[in-house]
Amino acid sequence: MDQAAALAAFEAQLRNVVRPTLDGGQFERAGSVIRCVGQEPNSWSGVEWSNLDEATADDVIAEQIRYFAERRRDFEWKYYAYDRPADLPERLLKAGLVPGEEEALMVADVADVPDIPAPEGIRLVTVSDEDGLRQVKAVHDKVFGGDHGPMIDSMRARLPSGAVAPVLALAGDEAVCAARVDFHIGTDFASLWGGGTLPEWRGRGIYRALVSHRRKLAAGRGYRYLRTDALPTSRPILEKLGFVRLTTTVPYTRPDESLSQGSLMRGSGPDQQ
Predict the structure, then answer these.
(1) CA 267, CA 128: separation in Å to the nearest integer?
(2) What are the two backbone dihedrals, phi and then psi, of residue 166, each rounded to the nearest 5 degrees?
(3) Rounded Cα distance, 97 and 92, in Å
(4) I need a surface site. Which of 11, 17, 31, 70 has the fewest CB within 10 A?
């Protein structure tokens, strides 16, 4: 995979562009930032892209904080390591925003991800009904904590359009791993989110098989790249499956905010084991 070309495509198709949201929110370009206001208070809102310099950065940061506060929205400033100015993280901190855990932006060419069968006794299924969504929620609630009702509501709304495919790993009738793939219509990218496996079922290859399963879904729709934001727990596995770290990303939020809402709509955090 040409890493420079993949990062350029990611920037042009998913960051520096005003595009439809996955859950009914509204992206807009406001001067030197692209921001999103979620449709509901518990939907994701934040700054997705910025193009700042030393002279304007502090004023723009303050403006965005005021903007979301006036609309009573928690928000996330999605910082990538190549964003400018070079001291943007320090400026965000000075403005009162707090960094979350650093994640790796991992991208793979769909053709490079191998086919991996499900472990013996495990079935991989694509969800299309209420019972399946209920099982996805149950796994995410157990693995990630919190109430994933808003995430399920978003999936339910997008299922008819084909913009999302929730998936489950089943041991008999028990759901032991749940994830989803978002299809960014009109782009080269499909995004992997969730990937939560119940603790007692980890280390058996279920996560790897579920990545491969979602690759097949993306390939069948003609997508070129798979993308995810990976924590250290999943990065080594993804690298073995053909994913490459293109950069790192850190969410910045106000200290009185709960990331549970934003991360739920984004995907219960990055793809994990």
Answers:
(1) 18
(2) -70, 145
(3) 5
(4) 70
- How far apart are alpha carbons 138 and 121 in whole angstroms? 20
Pick from 15, 38, 48: which is nearest to 265 by CA?
38
Tell me, what amino acid is at 106?
M
Reduced to 3 states (helix: H, G, I; strand: E, B; else coil), residue 58 is helix
pLDDT tens readout for residues 70-85 = 998 999 999 999 999 9
DSSP E strands in 15-81: the ranges are 26-30, 33-37, 46-50, 76-80
pTM for this prediction: 0.89
Binning the chain into helix, strand and coil, the percentages to the nearest 5 are 35, 30, 35
The answer to whether 94 touches 124, Cβ cutoff 8 Å, is no
Domains delineated in the chain: 3-104 (no CATH), 108-247 (3.40.630.30)
Burial tier of 72 (Cβ tally within 10 Å: 0-12, 13-18, 19+): exposed
62-73 confidence digits (pLDDT tens): 999 999 999 989
Kindly report the backbone phi and psi dihedral angles of residue 151, in degrees, each rounded to the nearest multiple of 5, phi listed first.
-65, -40
Report yes or no: 99 and 250 within 8 Å, Cβ to Cβ.
Answer: yes
